[in-house]
């Protein structure tokens, strides 16, 4: 026979913990989803910005009326490339520049950032930060910071024709600030990730010079 009496008070009270548990599970799942989505968003942003930096070094950094597609100074238009002794900066001089004028681009690591100085005749780009694009902080730590930038002459042994510039870039990505109850190790594991880029760019018209001539082949 069909029971039309409905639920008893005892049955309703007994069901409350089950409902609460389901609610907690759904809430935790939503929090994890939102956290994962935000982390992936920041991580993709860091990857894109790092890629753009390498492209700036490859093709040249553009800025307003100072530069144009015809006079960009990058590795692909280099007549000479000089890597300093610390290997975290390089100076590029272009193939096509006016005689007697000063044309160059200097890319370098400045603390946790990457900057560029460029001279285009009478026009200059001075102390321009190209990474990161925004100054976002989580407590005292930046969202994106450069842990290591290295340039090196990666030309094949005995080549002497095509010059190959190696670029190693290591970036730490922070998703949130360190919690009060977190250890330093837990903070690094749970709140940060590291991106590493290793690439080589042909600068076939250039003559690469290094301040440390004994270290001219290979990367890390």
Tell me the helix content: 25-40%
Give the mean pLDDT.
84
| Physical arrangement of strands within the biggest beta sheet | 5-4-3-2-1-11
Sheet with the most strands, sense and barrel status: 6 strands, mixed
Beta-strand content estimate: 35-45%
| Euclidean distance between termini CA atoms | 80 Å
pLDDT < 50 runs, ≥5 residues = 213-220
H/E element string?
HEEEEEEEEEHEE
Helix count, per DSSP? 2
What keyword list fits this structure?
single chain; 220 residues; alpha+beta; three-stranded antiparallel sheet; 2 helices; 11 strands
Ordered list of secondary-structure elements with their pairings:
Layout: H1 9-59, E1 78-83, E2 89-94, E3 103-110, E4 113-120, E5 123-131, E6 137-138, E7 141-142, E8 144-153, E9 164-174, H2 184-191, E10 192-202, E11 207-210
Parallel strand pairs: 1-11
Antiparallel strand pairs: 1-2, 2-3, 3-4, 4-5, 6-7, 8-9, 9-10
Describe this protein's structure.
This protein has helices spanning 9-59, 184-191; strands spanning 78-83, 89-94, 103-110, 113-120, 123-131, 137-138, 141-142, 144-153, 164-174, 192-202, 207-210. The longest helix is centred in the N-terminal third of the chain and has 51 residues, at 9-59. Mean pLDDT is 84; it is low at 213-220. It has one domain (9-210). The strands form 3 sheets. Strands 5-4-3-2-1-11 form a 6-stranded mixed beta sheet, covered by helices on one side. The chain has 220 residues and is of the alpha+beta class. The protein is built from 2 helices and 11 strands; from the N terminus they run αβββββββββαββ.
């Amino acid at each position: 026979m069909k029971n039309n009496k409905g639920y008893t008070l005892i049955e309703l009270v007994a069901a409350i913990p089950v409902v609460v548990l389901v609610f907690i599970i759904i809430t935790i799942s939503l929090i994890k989803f939102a956290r994962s989505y935000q982390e992936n968003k920041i991580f993709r942003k860091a990857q894109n910005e790092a890629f753009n930096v390498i492209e700036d070094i490859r093709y040249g950094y553009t800025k307003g009326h100072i530069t144009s597609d015809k006079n960009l100074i990058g590795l692909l238009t280099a007549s000479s490339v000089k890597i300093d002794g610390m290997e975290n900066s390089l100076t590029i001089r272009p193939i096509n520049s006016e005689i007697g004028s000063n044309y160059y681009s200097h890319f370098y690591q400045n603390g946790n950032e990457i900057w560029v100085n460029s001279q285009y005749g009478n026009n200059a780009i001075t102390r321009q930060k190209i990474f990161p694009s925004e100054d976002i902080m989580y407590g005292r730590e930046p969202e994106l910071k450069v842990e290591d930038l290295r340039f090196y002459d990666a030309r094949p042994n005995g080549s002497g024709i095509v010059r190959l510039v190696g670029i190693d870039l290591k970036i730490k990505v922070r998703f949130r600030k360190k919690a009060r109850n977190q250890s330093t190790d837990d903070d690094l594991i749970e709140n940060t990730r590291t991106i590493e880029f290793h690439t080589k760019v042909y600068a076939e018209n250039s003559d690469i010079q290094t301040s440390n001539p004994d270290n001219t082949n290979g990367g890390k």
